[in-house]
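Protein entry
_____________
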Amino acid sequence: MIRPASSVIRYTRFFRLAKVRRVLDYGAGLLRNALYLTDEGFQVFAADVPGQVKALAAHPEAGRLAGLLTVGGLAQAGLGVDLVVCTFVFNILATRNLKKQYLENVVANLRRGGYLLIEVNSRYPDTVFCGSMLRHYYSCDGSARSYSHDELDRQLASFGFERLCHYYSGHALAAVYRLRA
C-alpha cells in the first residue's frame, strides 16, 4: 500500500478520540488515505473526478470502502460524514469558482460540528509576491497554489469553518477545522 499523507497519520488518534466514524476522502487519488483510514476502523467514502473513479472502481481493494462517488454527485449526496479529508487537492484547483464549489461540496456532506483535515503546499505569509522568482506558486489573480494558515482561515471562514490546529512540515501545511454547529 502507498503511504498515506503524514497529516492523516498524525491526526488519526485525535479523530478516533473525537468519535469520528464516517469519513469522506475528497480527491481520493490512489486511495492511500482512504484505505489507511479503513484499516484504522473508519467507514470511508472516496470521491474524485469521473475518470479517476472509473479507474478506482477496478482497484482490488475498492470493495472495502463504504462508497465511491464522483465529485459531480457530491452536491446531492448528503453523506453527513464526521470528517472530510483533503490532502493536496485544494491547492491544485485552478480557479476561485472551483475552490468555492469544492468547499460547498465539503459543507454539503459534513455534519455540523464535523471536521475538515486539509493539507496543502505551504508558504509562509509575506514571502511570495506576484513579481517574485517564486511566482509559479502564486498567481496575481488570487489563485493560490500554496497557502499560509492565515490564507486558509480567510477562505474557509465564510463557509463556517474554525481552525482548531495546524502545523507546517517541509513544503506542507496541514490544518484541522471544525464546521460550526
Q: What stands out?
A: The first strand starts at residue 22 and ends at 26.
